[in-house]
Design goal:
Elements lengths: L9 E3 L22 H8 L3 E5 L4 E3 L7 E7 L2 E6 L5 E7 L4 E2 L1 H6 L6 E4 L3 E7 H10 L1 H27 L2 H16 L1 E3 L2 E4 L5 H8 L3 H13 L3 E4 L2 E4 L2 H8 L6
Antiparallel strand pairs: 1-2, 2-9, 3-8, 4-7, 4-9, 5-6, 5-8, 10-11, 11-13, 12-13
Amino acid sequence: MAAMFDSRALAQDPAPAWHGVAELEPGSFLASLRPEAHHALFHLGRRRVFRHGAPLLTQGHTPHWVMVLLRGRVKVAHHSDDGREVVLNIWGPGDLLGVVPSLDGEPADATIIAVDDVEAQVLSTVRFEAFLQSHPEAQRVLLQVLIRRLRRATRDRTQLALNDTFGRVALRLVELADRYGERDDGRIRITLPLSQNELAAWTGTSREATSKALQLMRQRGYIETFRREIHVLDIASLRRRVAGVLGS
C-alpha cells in the first residue's frame, strides 16, 4: 500500500525550491551535495508544507517517493502493537526522509511526524533513482548518510544502555543543545517543541522517570524548563554526567 499525504495537512508552494531553505543540518544529504546537484534535485520534485503534528510517512506503508527536508524538524518514531511509542531520532533541514522503504520496496518501520511546521521537497522514487544515476556524487553522499545513520544508531543504543535515566535525559539534552540550541546570555535555549512524553519516548524511560530527572537537573542548576522550551545553564555538567563522571 502506498503511503498517502493528508491533503488537509499540506499545501503546495510554487516558489523556487531553494528559496527560503533553513540552515541545513551538518552532514545531512542536502548539505553534502554540490550546488549543481541541488539545482537538478529541486527541479525534479515539488515543495510541500506540513503543519505541526502532521504525519509525513506512516509506519507499515511503502512510499513511492522520497523527501528532502527544507525547513522545520520531524520525529521518527516506532509504534508497538500495544500502542507504545519509541522515538528513534529527530531530523532537521537537509535530511532525507523515506529513502530506505522507498528504494527497497519494503514497508516503513517507523512513522515520521512534523514537530514544527515543515517544508519538504518531494519527488517520486523513479525520479530520485534517475537523479542518483545522473549524479554519481549523490550516490556517494547517500551511502555516507546511510552509514552515518547506522553508526549513530549503534552509538545511541550503547550510550542509552550504559546510562541511567538521569544520564539518558542528559544525553538527549546535550544532543539537542548541540544541534538546535541558541546561545543567549550564557545559556543555551532549546526550542524544539517536544513534550515530556516524547522526550521520555526518546530516552527509553517512563514519563515519570523523565520528569524526576528534569526536576533534579533544575535543582542542581543545570537547566530551566518552560512550556516546550528548555534552557541549558550548565552544559559542561551535563556532558560530564553523560560521560559518567558525576554521580546521580
